[in-house]
Amino acid sequence: MLNFTICFIKRGNEILLLNREKGSWMGRWNGVGGKIEPGETPLQGVLREVKEETGLVLTDIDHKGNVTWVIDGADYGGMYVYIAEIPEQTSYPTPVKREEGILDWKTREWLIDKENTGLADFMYFLPQMLDGENKHTYRYYYEGDLLVNVDENPLEKVYSRV
Fold this sequence. Notes:
hydrolase activity, acting on acid anhydrides, in phosphorus-containing anhydrides, NUDIX_hydrolase-like_dom_sf, Nucleoside Triphosphate Pyrophosphohydrolase, 8-oxo-dGTP diphosphatase, disordered C terminus, 44% strand, NUDIX_hydrolase_dom
């Protein structure tokens, strides 16, 4: 079992992102999520984290795959990735300051712009997970803080019940 969850909340052509104030990816835009607590399933963990970080109670959420990290040759764990869709008419005014950071809606075009350097490393998996029907696993390889390679593979069926 992986230790973390992340969720990208989609409203029409927009994705709700968090500019984190602490921890890994401080100062970068990322999805919402966090550590899975003891006794929680990944789904329970992501739903709790979304509620804590955004105040939203999600009902339509889909596990789209996993991301794992290898840093300087050592396995460094990973996260379950979820996509949630909320109706376009849902009112959630942003930007809004929360304990974890600033939440704001960003367009898909903004997210995939090659000039955008203010993002966590999700640009390698998010487009596929937003558009694809199949689940994938992504393995990120870092040398220190430098991302040197990303492998993508279909997610094994054993994980499909997450």
